[in-house]
Fold:
Amino acid sequence: MSVIDQNDDNVFLDNNDSNGSDNGVALIRELFDGTDDLLDTELERALENGIQTIVIEAHRLGEETARWISIGNCLNKTSVVTGIGSILAGIIWPEKRSTQCCLTGVSLLTNGIHYLSWQMDECEHYRVETDVHKIAANCAHLEDFDKPVVLTRREAHEMKRNHIFQTAISLIALAFTAFKLYKSFKLTKIIV
Structure:
């Protein structure tokens, strides 16, 4: 028995994927009667059930989902890049503490926003697949769609590694910045 009703007009579940898992492919078809809530519900069901590949034909829903995932990825990368930039700024320009503090603040802020808004979301477990040839082997129905958005489930260990790395970089940047500030204030007290 599949996790999604195969009799739905807008969803089709193909359990014959290449690795033999039951998670298969969910196809969310475009509805032309204006009921976007049904599409949202079907996408949520597919995400919650951990479907390996989700093909979204509905343009609005597909674009919104791809944008949501892209913003989450951007926040993740911004957190890491600004954290590393903060550490490098502290090493290269030790006299420019304001630059280091700003970069650390941005890293912590984007890490916090990502944690609160994206890390707990089911969409976080997916990536937008851009290589259609990679998906074509798993989904025979892909040619029936007009410019679909294809989501593939990410590995749990990959996500956990990314979250740990992102948080570690932000915390290391915070600790390094705090140490540099403490050291500069301690030096200022001795001079005065």
Notes: The two ends are 77 Å apart (CA to CA). The helical segments are 36-48, 59-92, 97-118, 132-136, 156-191. Residues 1-12, 14-22 have pLDDT under 50 and may be disordered. The beta strands are 11-14, 25-28, 53-56, 126-129, 149-153.
